[in-house]
Here is the input.
Amino acid sequence: MAPSHSTATHTSSVSHSADMNPLERRRDAQMDAARDRLQELHDLYALVHLLVDFLAGLTFTVGSVLFFWPATETPAIWLFVIGSVLFMAKPTVRLVHMLHDGRTRRSLERALSDEARSKLARFTPRARTLRM
Here is the structure.
């Protein structure tokens, strides 16, 4: 029986990497490390953004409930203020992420070949989903 298309592709890529010289293998390893670093940064900032979003929603929800009783009105107001600051922090986290990503890309690009630099410029980290 003939090998499936995916098997044939995998076999050819394996033989291709075996034909690579040590310098090309090192550059591929550097490229993989650069992509991994950018993916790690993306994942970290996505988690921070999610946590800030969750905490902002939580403070507004608890603050809303506390407004039911006059005795807890002051803590409710403070929770609204904290929630507002957290909502303001969300675009700040995104801005810091963008700046950090750009600085990291420039730093990584210095160690890469022209071809690898071009590939890294086109690289976009994957959005990940939480799996239970």
Residues 1-15 have pLDDT under 50 and may be disordered. Residues 26-122 form one domain. Helices lie at 5-19, 22-66, 73-109, 114-122. The first helix runs from residue 5 to 19.
